[in-house]
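User: Need the bound-state model for NAP:
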Amino acid sequence: MKICILGSGGFLGGYFKEKYPDAQTPKLDIADQTALIAYLDAEKPDIVINCAGKTGRPNVDWCEDHKPETVRSNVTGALMVMEECLNRHIYLVHIGSGCIYQGDNGGKGWAETDPPNYFGSFYSRTKAWSDEILSEFPVLNIRLRMPFDGTASPRNLIMKLAKYGRVLDEPNSLTNMPDLLNAVAQLMEKRLTGTFNIVNPGVISPFEVMEMYKEIVDPAHVFERLTVDHLGEVAKTGRSNCILSGEKLRKAGIEMPDVREAVKNALVELRGIDEK
Ligand SMILES: NC(=O)c1ccc[n+]([C@@H]2O[C@H](COP(=O)([O-])OP(=O)(O)OC[C@H]3O[C@@H](n4cnc5c(N)ncnc54)[C@H](OP(=O)(O)O)[C@@H]3O)[C@@H](O)[C@H]2O)c1
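Assistant: Bound-state model below.
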């Protein structure tokens, strides 16, 4: 089985590269149709995992000032990869985002069939545009949220939050990366297509994550509560805060551990790194 990972140099691409060490990792612009076709026709992968996209550095605020680049990667490139994979009957796994919603849908969480309802940042809008089109085609479209694990990666949600002096206290769905990799592997095994929310069941706020961090990793850690009405003081553009439903994934026979349990385990792992 020949697997190709696009965007393998990025944060999520790195996890998939570790999970599939024999995968090909071509360095091409996914919106460059000529380069994409040349690669797919020469190498004929069976599976393409598209982890390429613009997320902005240091954060999604970057996308507000880099709209052409953001559209090229998150919309044009995503659709180009989809079209060329479909033309060749290549199984496509697209890494999308749950940051296209706001709120908790009356406590039920947003299902895969609910239309996006968060348009407060350009990043989120591009992810919603491509998500809506991809969902019309037979590709596996993965929506995750705020990825975390027990590593010291600066892109790990927990490590990011640990650097903030003020931490948002809004309930959210989160995704533990090892759980996501297992879930995607199972979906891939069954060659399932369609959109899947992959989040750990339960709800937690970034502030609560830091309270657990203080308890488990660093009792001296200092931070303050940030409420959503003060978010504008620390971020240029809005942020999605939402709860996704994991019902479809569960019905597909894939169980994810509870979010608080997963955060606790990640923090215990981080404490181990700290103590070394
Ligand atoms: N990290 C999160 O919190 C999160 C959450 C939910 C969903 N996602 C989604 O997951 C995907 C990967 O995110 P990430 O966190 O891994 O981002 P990342 O660390 O910024 O990695 C993205 C990778 O894609 C590459 N890339 C961007 N545009 C490309 C293009 N046109 N052609 C080929 N490669 C391109 C980037 O290269 P350059 O650096 O050279 O641009 C980078 O190596 C994105 O689609 C993102 O929306 C991320």
